[in-house]
Amino acid sequence: MRDLKQRIQDLKDEYESVFSGVSLEKKKLTLQDLESKSMDPKLWDNQDLARAIMQELGDTKNEIENLQKLKEGIETLVELSNLSEVDEEMSPEVSQLEELMSKLKLTSFLSGAYDKKNALMSIHAGQGGTEAMDWAGMLYRMYIRFCERKGWVTETIDYSPGEEAGIKSVTFKISGSYVYGYLKGEAGTHRLVRQSPFNADNLRQTSFALVGVLPELEEIDLPGVVIKDEDLDWQFFRSSSQGGQNVQKVSTAVRVKHIPTGIVVTAQTERFQEQNRKIALSLLRSKIWALEQEKQKQEVKSIKGEYRPASWGNQIRSYVLHPYKMVKDLRTEVESSNPDSILGGEIDQFIEAELSLS
């Protein structure tokens, strides 16, 4: 019983430490304001603004409900503990509150300006031909499975398959709550060491792939960034992606170059050209934002502490399948001896450890 009482006391201390500065009343006022805006009949005249408000409304409501549940649950347990009415039958309830505490603590780390946003993730194979393209494909599957486990929705924007295996590059959108906040730390170089499955001698091979993560930004998020029509060079072509017959036969794919910065983006997986144009503009907007962040590092601390661009020299994690099995994050020192589960999408421990460094 003493152990259970100690767990209850630890929950109380942790709540006071992490959430002492959180005002539920202020959050409720914010919720009321968002609910009022959501009922404006003219809201959907601006769909970007409407989507942003509705997502913030849902996130705020969910946060308030969870904080209330945690606060009230802990208060009840503390009161029972003080009355010596705690027994082991209450252990499952304590465990549930401990799990909720961990979830809300993790969310408390996601306080950056764009952490609540959807994410645009890209994966590019490094040098090494088929080996590297296969590795990029493995990472793509890993992140897709992770997103499935989280209940997030993925949508492929651009896909370039490898000649023999894997992918040369892929860009995909991930939709859900706090997606960018969770995944931004995955940006960087990922290294694979294994016996090559592509030569008869099974030689040891090291491959690299570059992962990039950007927030999906709307015009309302970047009032100071104006993309002028005259600064855009559009090209239209037939898609080479894994689309349906219409995608393959009609010039639905788009490529746009932003002349002032030289940034080029491609979108080719949707069935209609206009859809791909909209996706390309969204991706371009995010890349222009990233470029500005790199130029103004003094402002980046409000987004992610010290800025770490997804460059080839910025290796963040090694996945070793031979001569031993180990996945190690080089920033947090977190390790796993089960690379199969990691490559199957169970990467929570790495993401949570990186977030806790914030």
Summarize the structure.
With 358 residues, the chain is an alpha+beta fold. It has helices spanning 2-19, 24-38, 47-82, 91-108, 130-150, 179-183, 245-249, 273-295, 301-304, 339-343, 348-355, and strands at 119-125, 153-161, 167-175, 188-195, 204-215, 232-237, 253-258, 263-267, 315-320, 326-329, 335-336.
Overall description:
The chain is built from 11 helices and 11 strands. The protein has 358 residues and is α+β, with helices and mostly antiparallel strands. It has 3 domains: 2-108, Methane Monooxygenase Hydroxylase, Chain G, domain 1, CATH 1.20.58.410; 119-221 and 305-355, Alpha-Beta Plaits; 229-297, Double Stranded RNA Binding Domain, CATH 3.30.160.20. Helix 1 packs antiparallel against helix 3 (47-82). The longest helix is centred in the first third of the chain and has 36 residues, at 47-82. The model is unreliable at 243-249 (pLDDT under 50).
List keywords for this structure.
358 residues; alpha+beta; Methane Monooxygenase Hydroxylase, Chain G, domain 1; Alpha-Beta Plaits; Double Stranded RNA Binding Domain; 3-stranded antiparallel sheet; 11 helices
Please describe the biggest sheet, giving its number of strands, its sense, and whether it closes into a barrel.
8 strands, mixed
Structural class: alpha+beta
What pattern of helices and strands is seen along the backbone?
A: HHHHEHEEHEEEHEEHHEEEHH
What oligomeric state do the depicted chains represent?
single chain
Percent helix range: 40-55%
Shape annotation:
flat
Under CATH, the topology of the largest domain is which?
Alpha-Beta Plaits
Strand content: 15-25%
Give the averaged pLDDT, no decimals: 85
Instruction: List the strand order in the largest sheet.
Output: 2-3-1-5-4-9-10-11
Rg, rounded, reads: 23 Å
